[in-house]
Amino acid sequence: MYFDQDNNYYDDDSINISFDRNKKLYTPDEGFNKGNMFVNEYSKYKDYVYKLKVSNDKDRLLYEIQMYTFALKDIILFLDTHPNDNEIIRLYNEYLNIEKKMCDKYESMYGPLTLGSDNLNKNNWTWINSPWPWEVM
Fold first, then answer.
1. In the chain, how long is the greatest CA-to-CA distance?
2. What integer pLDDT is reported at residue 103 of this predicted model?
3. Sign of CA dihedral 7, 1, 118, 73
4. Closest CA to 13 of 113, 79, 85, 100
5. What is the 3-state secondary structure (H, E, C) of the chain?
6. The pTM is what?
7. CA dist., res. 136 & res. 56, Å (int)
8. pLDDT digits (tens, 9 = 90+) for 29-60
């Protein structure tokens, strides 16, 4: 999963979303790191460099899930005041599809993300078997 130099999105299933830089939204990665998906609403804080770092494949996938979840929530707030913006609605649905695929991939590889997950083992309570965040060194 990545954005190329022209900001086209690619993932393992060859989903391609063309992202026009002249539009009003940042890419999900930029928006997540800046804390705002909307270009005209973003105000840089001093010389702060925005880039979260990940160290392994599991963390990278979780980072990308969080990135798309953030983008979806920010877009929802925009749609509350602009309910007829078909371009943003289309983008929302594309991001929702990507997020769902990434969540399914994460859960199939590493276990459930939430207690409401369809991938939570119903016959054996495995939720507590993963290391807790403070147990990871």
1. 52
2. 92
3. negative
4. 100
5. CEECCCCEEECCCCCCEECCCCCCECCHHHHHHHCCCEHHHCCCCCCCCCCCCCCCHHHHHHHHHHHHHHHHHHHHHHHHHCCCCHHHHHHHHHHHHHHHHHHHHHHHHHCCCCCCCCCCCCCCCCHHHCCCHHHCC
6. 0.70
7. 13
8. 888 888 888 888 777 777 777 677 788 898 89
Output the pLDDT for position 26.
Answer: 87
- Answer for the pair 18, 5: CB distance below 8 angstroms, yes or no: no
The Cα-based distances of 12 to 2, 41, 56, 101 in angstroms read 9, 32, 17, 10
**Choice between 5 and 73, residue whose per-residue pLDDT is larger:** 73
State the first-to-last Cα distance of the chain, in angstroms, to the nearest integer.
Answer: 26
Tokens (6 digits) for 100: 């769902």
Tokens (6 digits) for 53: 């770092």
> Using CA atoms, how far apart are residues 81 and 83, in angstroms rounded to an integer?
6
**Per-residue confidence (pLDDT) for residue 124, from 0 to 100:** 59
The answer to whether the beta carbons of residues 135 and 128 sit under 8 Å apart is no
Tokens 């495995």 map to which residue?
A: 126
Tell me the per-residue pLDDT of 97-117, one tens digit each, with 9 for 90 and over.
999 999 999 988 887 887 777
Question: How many residues does this entry show for the chain?
Answer: 137
